[in-house]
Description:
- This protein is of the alpha/beta class.
- The chain folds into two domains: 3-207, Alpha-Beta Complex (inorganic pyrophosphatase (n-terminal core)); 213-337, Diaminopimelate Epimerase, Chain A, domain 1 (Roll), CATH 3.10.310.30.
- It contains 14 helices and twelve strands.
- It has helices at 3-12, 29-43, 77-86, 105-110, 140-150, 159-172, 183-194, 199-207, 212-223, 240-245, 257-261, 293-300, 318-328, 333-337; strands spanning 18-22, 48-53, 71-72, 89-93, 114-119, 130-133, 226-228, 233-238, 268-275, 280-287, 304-305, 309-314.
- The strands form two sheets. A six-stranded parallel β-sheet has the order 3-2-1-4-5-6, with helices on both faces.
- Helix 6 runs antiparallel to helix 7.
- It starts with a helix and ends with a helix.
Amino acid sequence: MNKEEIERIKQLLSTPKKIIIVPHRNPDGDAIGSILGLYHYLLNGQHKVSPITPNNYPNFLKWIPGENTILKHDSQTELCEKLINEADIIFTLDFNAFHRTGKMEPILSKSNAIKIMIDHHQAPDDYATYMYSDVKMSSTCEMVYHFISMLGNLNKIEAKIATCLYTGIMTDTGSFRFASTTTTTHKVVADLIERGANNSEIHNSVYDTNSYSRIQLLGCALNNLKIIPELKTSYITLSQEELNKYNYTKGDTEGVVNYGLSLDGIKLAAIFIEDKNEGIIKISLRSKGVFSVNEMSRKHFNGGGHTNAAGGKSYSSLQETVEKFISILPTYKKALNDE
């Protein structure tokens, strides 16, 4: 985003506007943190701001400041679409193609509002009037921090905004252990702590509040863990029956795929989760080094994401999906064995 575009956005935001902020479907910590961080910031300009998610999100994100203001398109469709139709500006955060919003895609595509994209995923679609896209960024929350900085308003980041942005950076960097975490990332989170983000409380709120059934489901997932040593690959399966047995709720499988990646000698990890309501198998892929799960997901599993973290889906059965995954692995043998 160049200086001329920033000046236009500053001018655009200089008078009160009707603004919608939208993340991707099944929003994670970075998505919720970024929309709420931007929401609190924009309220300072006397704008009428409505954060709208395509659907619900995990309970461990429902403590974030301003969470109670979020509207959900799948359960509040009429109100959400009315607000979208009336919007002057639509911010799209943590995604770069309208299909990532599920059933919101048609209404967003038809909207005449000025669209501003802030996102760090690869291969963005060309729908935004203003696009801040940087695949090297750790998270969209870090980008929102830099966006506010570019507007010359870092002084307006107070505790609520800092808490929201810290949450998203923490979750999208795997608590700052992923390769996308840079020296700049650490400087940003240090500043957010100085501005009121309580890092210890945030970590506890996200990671240290588990239900008994969620721990049981984790045990089931780890019991299902398989490894293919010669291909440096691990994978986990969870059937709908297993999810039901342990009273699965949205977010209970967050981060489980990383257990497979943590095994010594493993460079590629996958988890396959059956969702009979949607008629799909949800897939999460993780990797180490330069092996691109983004490329694998785009080519084989109707998805995409980052080099080391991507998602996808399959319309085949759980068994057929796993068999397909295993069948394509030999074509990646060289890449998986390259240091």
